[in-house]
Structure formats: structure tokens, C-alpha cells
Amino acid sequence: MSTEPDLTITPDADARRLALEAIATLVYVKKTAADQILRRSGVSEDLIRRFLTERDPSTGEKRSKRDAGAIVLEELANSGADHPVVRNIIAIAADWSAFHLAQNEYQARAVVQKAREMHGVLEAADARERKQAEALRGTEVQQRRREQRETLARQSSLLLAQFDQAASSSDYQQRGYFLEDLLNRAFDLHGIPVLRAFRRNGGGEQIDAAFELDGWHYIVECRWRTRLADIRQLDGLAGQVARSGRQTMGLFLSVEGWSDHVVPLLKQNPDKAIFLMEGFDLRAVLDQRVDLRRLLKAKISALNLEAEPYFSVAKIL
């Protein structure tokens, strides 16, 4: 005959009845039952006190272990806390050997045998529930990831179209404001904490944007003009970085690039605290040819390890 637990039954109701039987049968003395079964199974002290002192309103007599135990289990069920306690009582009963504490040893042994069978059923049921819950969580995770990919693709496509449209604009000031907003939205989209434009030092210093990556903070300077950026424009960013905390670096984004002497001059700076990004880099991110976080880390590594202020996205593509 098979000894495998019957997984087709619903064990909760039977388990609760068996838990009550264990409370009533395994230990004769009520206080000992409270110590050896209820307290060990996680029943609160308030309910244990009720178990020991509850009286029948019609007779004034203290309730039996069975009646008081039924009240305890009902209170636990009402609060939604009966599931773990019932299982703990079954586990205690399944491992029970102190039959000398029972009023009727044969009844106690019969309860222990039932508890051992039920314990196997409950373990199998719990394992099945855990497996189902894990499968559900896996499905939910996959769904969230799919939705995130779809959102990233949709929003990136929109930002790319806006970026290409702005490239033909002759309103350079408005285009500069748009660049700051686009950069902030791109950082948000890629899950990188970003601070939008703000002032500090009593309003005397304007910061275009700032973001945090791996515990470091980065101040961003944005430029979108027809003329290539020169080193004087980077000096302002260098000053902002120098006036910040030690774990601060600078990102200079110039859509149209920079003059030929910018990179050599940055290499001469002993601080090596500024790295560069141009329009081609940004467009590759918006076109989803490269992840923004990956690109930034590659640029930061090139600066820190190779003293190279400009790492082109072309090296990744």
C-alpha cells in the first residue's frame, strides 16, 4: 500500500480539527498543555491566558482544554494567524513522545499517528503552494520586464524623433533648454537617479543637471550650438566639480562636439574629473543601440583607468 500523502485533499480544515485534538488529548494538565503545545507553536500570551482562564458563561466553570482550544483556534482564524500555528501544532504532535503526560496514552498515540500522516500532507501542500507562488512571481517578473522593454522602446523612439527634429532648429537657446529636458528624460527612462536644473551657493551657481551612479555624483553641463565647444566652457564645469564633494565628477555634453585642443588640455589636468559626451553618443542611446548605463560606465572607466576623457560609443558598437 502506498505511503505517499494524498495531494487531492484540502488539508486545512482537517489540520485544524487535528490540532484541536492534539490540544485536548496529548497533555492532561491544562497548564502543561499551554506550555508544551500552545506556547511552542507561537500562540500569543493573551490567547494562552484565555485558554487557561476562560469560563463557560452558563456554568461558570473553566472551559475544558477542547473548548478553550477551539476558542484559541477561532480567534487565530479571525485574525488570519491560524495557518502557521496549526502547522506548528501538527509538527509538535508528529514528533511527540511524552505519552506519560496524557490521560489516555492510546488516544494520544492515535493522535500522534494522525499528526505524522497530516504533517506529510501539509509539507507536500506547502511545497506545491511555494512552487506555484514561485512560478507566479517568475511570470510577474517576466511581465514587468517585458513592459519595461516596451516602455523603453516606445519612449526612446519618441525622444529620438524629437532630437532629430530639434537638430534642424535655428533657435539655439530653445534647443539648449530642450537638450537639458531630453537628457533628464533619458536618464529617468534608464533608471538613473537624476536632478534637474537647480541653483546653489545662494543662487549664484546654475547647475544644468546632476545624476548619481554607483555612489558617485556627476554634474552635467549641456551645450548644443553650431560652434564647437572650447576649453573655456569646460573650465566652468571644472569649477563646479571642484566646489562639490570629493565623490563628484563632471559630464560635459556637447552635441556638436568640441575643438581639437579640448581633449589634450583635459589630459593635462591632474584631477581627471571631467569626461565628454557628444551628439553621436546620445543618439546611439536614443536609438537603443547601446544602454545608457553601459555607455556611462565605459566612459568613466576610460577616464579613470586610461586617462582618456572621451570614449566614443563607436568603440562599443
Describe the protein in words.
With 317 residues, the protein is α/β, with parallel strands linked by helices. It folds into 2 domains: 121 residues, no CATH class; 149 residues, Trna Endonuclease, Chain: A, domain 1 (3-Layer(aba) Sandwich). It is built from 11 helices and 7 strands. The strands form 2 sheets. Strands 1-4-5-6-7 form a 5-stranded mixed beta sheet, with helices on both faces. Strand 6, helix 9 and strand 7 form a beta-alpha-beta unit. The chain is elongated and about 95 Å long. The chain starts with 10 loop residues before the first helix and ends in an 11-residue tail after the last helix.
Spell out the key features of this protein.
Trna Endonuclease, Chain: A, domain 1, five-stranded mixed beta sheet, elongated, disordered N terminus
Give the biggest sheet. 5 strands, mixed
Instruction: Give me the secondary-structure category.
Output: alpha/beta
Using only C-alpha atoms, the radius of gyration works out to 35 Å
Number of strands: 7
Average pLDDT across residues?
A: 90
Shape: elongated
SS summary, helix count? 11
User: What order do the strands of the largest sheet run in, or round the barrel if closed?
Assistant: 1-4-5-6-7
Quickly name the level 1 CATH class of the largest domain.
Alpha Beta
The CATH topology of the largest domain comes to: Trna Endonuclease, Chain: A, domain 1
What percent of the residues sit in helical stretches (DSSP H or I)? 55-70%
- In the CATH hierarchy, the architecture of the largest domain is 3-Layer(aba) Sandwich
Taken in chain order, the helices and strands follow as HHHHHHHEEEEEHEHEHH
Q: What is the CA–CA distance across the termini?
A: 65 Å
Beta-strand content bin: 5-15%
Given as residue ranges, the uncertain stretches (5+ residues, pLDDT < 50) are 1-10
Number of domains: 2
